[in-house]
Design goal:
mainly beta, four-stranded antiparallel beta sheet, 4 helices, 12% helix, globular
Length: 256
């Protein structure tokens, strides 16, 4: 089994070893994963962060020395909490945008420099001087991000990727899917008002969990549906002013 670090803004992870297969999640810059199988040009991987499993293109897997990967895994890393950070790789003519939720170990000789394997990077040190924002500030920084099934970054994100990412930035780990996230925390009692950071889950008539959003208080919810935006939340579900109708049926609200 091989351990690896993501060197790209993100690596697409698919459900099957095929370019036409469904995107199920993404590995963000600096996140680590285990390679457990190879089929031709495809690698089956398990992400360290949430144990999510899928297939990536083998060309995107960088062969770092094992000892360097293990040092990176053990290190205390800074989590990018802006929608994106510009990183400049030494010797390369172009910069790279690193998404919120990416992991950086500041292991260089300067305040904002770091290296992964043979690559040396530098980012604007102003990013490191800001404290981690609160949940609403993180969520609002992703406002307007388009919906993308399997997405976990500011280019495109799905509903559970959004809630997972926001909580990662503020220091709490959530599993990847809404059907897993609903197992976290405690359910609010009848009449108990939702607070900022509570998670609201929504289902189909058959009871299948199909959506999750983040409560902001004052009967507001921010969620990824079409794009990341704010709607109203009540005991029935999500109400859209734009559509003048309910769009999702509430199952439960959980407090973590």
């Amino acid at each position: 089994m091989k351990h690896s670090i993501c060197h790209y803004g993100y690596i697409p992870v698919r459900t099957e070893p095929s370019e036409t297969s469904e995107l199920c999640t993404q590995i963000l810059f600096g996140e680590t994963y285990n390679v457990v199988e190879q089929q031709g040009k495809w690698l089956r991987v398990i992400l360290d962060y949430d144990n999510y499993e899928g297939w990536i293109d083998a060309k995107l897997d960088i062969n770092d020395e094992e000892i360097e990967v293990e040092k990176w895994c053990r290190a205390k890393k800074w989590i990018v909490h802006w929608p994106s950070v510009k990183a400049v790789c030494k010797g390369e003519p172009h910069s790279m945008l690193i998404s919120a939720g990416s992991e950086i170990w500041i292991n260089g000789n300067e305040l904002a420099s770091f290296s992964i394997g043979k690559n040396e990077y530098h980012i604007d040190c102003d990013y490191l001087l800001h404290s981690t924002p609160n949940i609403e500030a993180v969520a609002m920084s992703l406002y307007g991000t388009p919906y993308l099934w399997g997405g976990r970054n500011f280019y495109g994100i799905d509903c559970s990727g959004f809630t997972q990412l926001v909580y990662k930035i503020v220091g709490k780990k959530l599993p990847r899917d809404a059907s897993q996230q609903i197992e976290m925390g405690r359910a609010l009692a009848p009449g108990e008002e939702p607070q900022e950071g509570d998670l609201a889950f929504f289902d189909t008539p058959s009871g299948k969990i199909v959506h999750v959003g983040l409560c902001l208080g004052d009967k507001r919810i921010i969620h990824a549906s079409g794009n990341v935006h704010i709607d109203w939340l009540d005991d029935k579900g999500i109400y859209s002013d734009q559509l003048d109708q309910y769009t999702h049926t509430l199952r439960v609200i959980k407090r973590l």
